[in-house]
Please model this.
Amino acid sequence: MKVYDIRDPQDRIFAFEIENLGVGRRGVCRIVERIPGAKVTRRPKFLSWFREAEFCEFTVDGESFAAEEPWGDNSRYWIGPKPPRWVAQAEKVRDAFANT
Model:
């Protein structure tokens, strides 16, 4: 899967975006579930595309992450730590999507 890296001022990848076409909100959660040490804590609700930008929350090795569609009807999903900042686990999450 193609990922679009988002870097911090120190040039470290702290979040990324993926194209939502073909993956879907529930598909994001399924990919997260395959990450060693990950636990999905909130899944998309019924009609989530209509009523919530942030649709999946999860932890990886104790760090909180979220997946969201920041502009409502966007072509990409943003995936990163919550709150947004660099954490070592971000690479593990990014690699899971890049290798899908």
